[in-house]
Amino acid sequence: MKKKIFVFILVLAVTGTALAQKAFKSWNKNLVIAHRGAWKTQNLPENSIASLKEAIRIGCFGSEFDVQLTSDGIPVVNHNADFLGKDIATSTYQELITYKKLGNGESIPTLEEYIKAGQGQKKTKLILEIKPQKNLDNEIVLTKKVIETVNRLKAAPWIEYISFSYDICKYLIDHVPGARVSYLKGDVEPAKLKADGFYGLDYHYSVFEKTDWLTKAHELGLIVNAWTVNADKDMLRLIEQKADYITTNEPELLFEKIKK
Ligand code: MG
What we know:
CATH topology: TIM Barrel
Helix content: 40-55%
Radius of gyration: 19 Å
Distance between the termini: 62 Å
Oligomer: single chain
Low-confidence stretches: none
Bound molecules: magnesium ion
Strand order of the largest sheet: 1-2-6-7-8-9-10-11
Strand content: 15-25%
Mean pLDDT: 94
């Protein structure tokens, strides 16, 4: 009897996850991913909630952001290991918010605040980069915190994961069923990524000039994203090569290119 109840609950859980994914078909159908949000044109701070909202406003498919971990275990959104000069891994969250603010007056966003700001809509995905940490233990602690936050907020349908750390990527693939995980570093060939369960590869655009990995990845059914593409000629070439997504500091310019 116990076994039957267990199976019933399992079926409910799996169906629930599938339905949650299926319910969201409203994502913008373009290849534009704003790198650290759309900040440049409006002179907003990178990785601010304001830059996320701007990426949503201009209709990007995705808005990318970076996640670090404070000494007291709070995932926060920031590119560098330091927040405006203060080391994040050895600072508490309270120390960071009393230290300085972003240029627009925002405090350093927590991952929770950032995700909640994105969950008000279902058009722009949240492209969550987990930053490599000082050692593997710290990387796993941060990754677990990210997974816990995403699960608690029921945010899985919004999230796609990226990382330069292969260990972080593998942890996500092994522990988050259905997670869309792409690797950033550019040093692993598509066949290995496919074998290791990746959703895609998100490499510097120069990698696709030097190799045939864009074509190879597509043959294997992997999704191809390229970073950080800011010049017309690089955008046009990647559009022609049918890259699935292009990550850029110039989302408005990329929108102009795909209109043509
Ligand atoms: Mg990033």
